[in-house]
């Protein structure tokens, strides 16, 4: 993981806390992380690409335990890339994971700590698939 240079790209503002976001690169994929709350902005499909990469959870510096309702209402969050209103979605693999999505530019915002949970769900789902859908517990 490395801090990416922001030459040629405008710095984003966090849609949650309005703090500055800084580019962070894992392998060749660069995402934006809020320097205040640790939220992560993913451009089109970056979260899915990173989800399958071993070790990519290091980009998420947010808390291990999430607050019971860390989200302001989605209609009050604007996309940091195109300023369109964002919509709150539930992950199809784990309905307890919610994130904000921009239907205009297809970006996604995860609160600090949520990407780690999203990635853990992917790992558990892979194990379930490997073992024929049986419960691992």
The count of helical stretches stands at 2
How many angstroms separate the termini?
Answer: 33 Å
* Tally of DSSP β-strands: 7
| Largest beta sheet: strand ordering | 1-2-3-4-7-6-5
Q: In percent, how helical is the residue content?
A: 10-25%
SSE string: EEEEHEEEH
- Overall pLDDT score: 82
The assigned structural class equals alpha+beta
Shape: globular
Strand content: 15-25%
Largest sheet: 7 strands, antiparallel
Q: Compute the CA-based radius of gyration.
A: 15 Å
Uncertain segments: 2-8
SSE layout and pairing:
Elements: E1 2-3, E2 21-26, E3 29-34, E4 40-42, H1 46-51, E5 87-90, E6 98-101, E7 108-110, H2 114-130
Antiparallel strand pairs: 1-2, 2-3, 3-4, 4-7, 5-6, 6-7
Key terms for this structure?
17% helix; disordered N terminus; 137 residues; alpha+beta; seven-stranded antiparallel β-sheet
Account of the protein in words:
- This protein has helices at residues 46-51, 114-130; strands at residues 2-3, 21-26, 29-34, 40-42, 87-90, 98-101, 108-110.
- It is globular and about 30 Å long.
- By secondary structure, it is an alpha+beta fold.
- Strand 2 (21-26) and strand 3 form a beta hairpin.
- Strands 1-2-3-4-7-6-5 form a 7-stranded antiparallel beta sheet.
- It is built from 2 helices and 7 strands, in the order E-E-E-E-H-E-E-E-H.
- The model is unreliable at 2-8 (pLDDT under 50).
Q: Outline of this structure?
A:
The chain is built from two helices and seven strands; from the N terminus they run E-E-E-E-H-E-E-E-H.
């Amino acid at each position: 993981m490395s801090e990416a240079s922001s030459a040629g790209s405008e710095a984003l503002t966090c849609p949650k806390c309005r703090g500055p976001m800084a580019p962070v690169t894992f392998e060749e994929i660069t995402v934006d992380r809020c320097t205040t709350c640790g939220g992560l902005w993913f451009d089109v499909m970056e979260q899915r690409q990173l989800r399958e990469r071993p070790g990519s959870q290091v980009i998420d510096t947010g808390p291990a335990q999430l607050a019971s309702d860390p989200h302001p209402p989605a209609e009050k969050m604007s996309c940091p890339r195109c300023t369109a209103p964002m919509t709150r979605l539930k992950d199809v693999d784990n309905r307890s994971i919610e994130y904000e999505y921009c239907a205009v530019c297809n970006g996604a915002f995860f609160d600090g700590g949520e990407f780690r949970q999203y990635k853990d769900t992917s790992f558990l789902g892979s194990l379930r698939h490997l073992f024929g859908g049986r419960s691992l517990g």
